[in-house]
Amino acid sequence: MALKLNPTIAQSPKLPAFALPPMASLRSPKFFMASTLRSGSNCSALIFVNEIKKSYPDTNEFVDREVDNIKKPFTPPREVHVQVTHSMPPQKIEIFKSLEDWADQNLLVHLKPVEKCWQPQDFLPEPSSDGFHEQVMELRERARELPDDYFVVLVGDMITEEALPTYQTMLNTLDGVRDETGASPTSWAIWTRAWTAEENRHGDLLNKYLYLSGRVDMRQIEKTIQYLIGSGMDPRTENNPYLGFIYTSFQERATFISHGNTARLAKEHGDLKLAQICGTIAADEKRHETAYTKIVEKLFEIDPDGTVLAFADMMRKKIAMPAHLMYDGRDDNLFDNFSAVAQRLGVYTAKDYADILEFLVGRWKVEKLSGLSGEGLKAQEYVCGLPPRIRRLEERAQGRVKQARSVPFSWVYDRQVSL
Ligand SMILES: [Fe+2]
Ligand SMILES: [Fe+2]
User: Fold this and answer.
1) Predicted confidence (pLDDT) per residue in 111-148, tens digit
2) For Fe cation 1, which residues are the binding ones (predicted)?
3) Three-class DSSP category at 409
4) Span 246-269, mean pLDDT?
5) End-to-end CA distance of the chain
6) What letter does residue 220 receive in the DSSP assignment?
7) What is the spatial distance between Cα 281 and Cα 201, in angstroms, rounded to a whole number?
8) Distance, CA 280 to ligand 1 centroid (Å)?
9) Which alpha helices (H) appear in 269-363, and where do they start and end?
């Protein structure tokens, strides 16, 4: 799964508001980071730092930077909305227990054996080879042809992938399917761990490619990743696997679309190797989408009413994008700005949001559900009518006159990029 941006941020005058998660983000003054020094207080940490500086004068510059960090509060953005927990009635946990064998037969088949999986190294210069430097130079030659706005989107996608610990945590919040021990033998837990292991290659590959490209400010990017993982996310799935698997179905398709589009653009810019990298990641996302949508399809079969209500609930709340709390220490609107560039380049757009929803409605045959309760019928009507409503809003937003605007992105050394 993982990741992708919400193209529709209400604060942004350029984009329609329908996909805005009803929440705000604040930078909390509550959290303080004592950096890597495990002292009881900032004061004792500073005394400790002075001792280090005396003993190891060569490290002074680095230590000074760390001291700066100690003085400044660590202020991750935090979600400001009511956090609902455990909304699935406890008796429904039995549904997921009874689906253990089903998951073994139908879900785990979508994992690839490790020996048959691609690895990041298959697409990168071989460090042990004599031709390593030449291979790196070739990579950098090709990367020179790509514009800054493309790199902004690729970096945002990579950062989103790199916040993988958050997504594994999210899956392990779900009642009835969580990995209870960290090495649980249930099919659900096996899936979650192996899925995470597959996803882990995405961030690794993009990160190493971007490092070698020499086009981006790796330190700023690494800071953004640290902030993002520290911030976490609440996709409002309420420990409820119905909501959780609808969310992951949506997200896997969103990432499939996004990586597919960065592949297409790389090809248009003449970088076939990068196109292959992004296309290979997109293929993984597609396989994950197949798996997650299959779970929800099964839930529709067993409990159509509960599942259509969950689908409508998730769509009313809007699908919050996994990296929406991203921050680089400088730009308070980093996610909105990144989303605006992705929208402008056609990598992930408001139209994609509507298309994904329409795809899922069709995939799960929501229009054909029968025998629903009154509430279920209302939910069915709501989700089936939503894609055209979103499209109308989007067209109206597109029709408004847009002001040309550009902002500096720290990821590309504060160069200006059009939104
Ligand atoms: Fe994925
Ligand atoms: Fe991924």
Assistant:
1) 999 999 999 999 999 999 999 999 999 999 999 999 99
2) 161, 199, 202, 285
3) strand
4) 98
5) 26
6) H
7) 9
8) 12
9) 272-302, 304-317, 334-345, 350-363
413: left (phi over 0), alpha (psi -120 to 50) or beta: left
- pLDDT recorded at residue 178: 97
11 class by beta-carbon count within 10 Å (0-12 exposed, 13-18 middle, 19+ buried): exposed
Q: Is the dihedral of CA 144, 148, 154, 159 positive or negative?
A: positive
Q: How many CA atoms lie within 13 A of 345 on its CB side?
A: 30
Ligand nearest to the CA of 157: 2
Question: Which residue type, as a one-letter code, is found at position 118?
Answer: W
Q: Which ligand is nearest to the CA of 201?
A: 2
Tokens representing 41 are: 């207080």
How far CA 79 is from CA of 4, 29, 76, 317, 327, in Å, comes to 17, 13, 10, 14, 13
**CA 290 to ligand 2 centroid distance, Å:** 14
Task: State the catalytic residues.
Answer: 118, 161, 199, 202, 252, 255, 284-285, 288
Domains and CATH numbers, the chain: 92-112+132-348 (1.10.620.20)
Distance 346 CA to ligand 2 centre (A): 19
Q: Which long-range contacts (CB under 8 A, 24 or more apart) does 97-100 make?
A: 97/176, 99/298, 100/186, 100/187, 100/188
Going from the Cα of 3 to the center of ligand 1, the distance in angstroms, rounded, reads: 7
The response to whether 259 counts as a known ligand-binding position is: no
CA distance 44 to 186: 46
Query: Token pair for residue 9?
Result: 């941020």
DSSP H or E stretch at residue 25: strand 24-27
* Residue 199 labelled as part of a binding site: yes
Q: What is the tens place of the pLDDT at every residue in 293-345?
A: 999 999 999 999 999 999 999 999 999 999 999 999 999 999 999 999 999 99
**Tokens 């009635």, residue?**
89
Residue 213 and residue 274 in contact, taking contact as beta carbons nearer than 8 Å: no
Q: What is the distance in A from the centroid of ligand 2 to the CA of 282?
A: 8
- Spatial contact of 354 and 394, defined as CB atoms under 8 Å apart: yes
Radius of gyration of the chain (CA): 23
Give percent above pLDDT 70 in the chain. 81
Can you give the pTM of this predicted structure? 0.84
Nearest C-alpha neighbor of 335 from the set 1, 24, 80, 30: 24
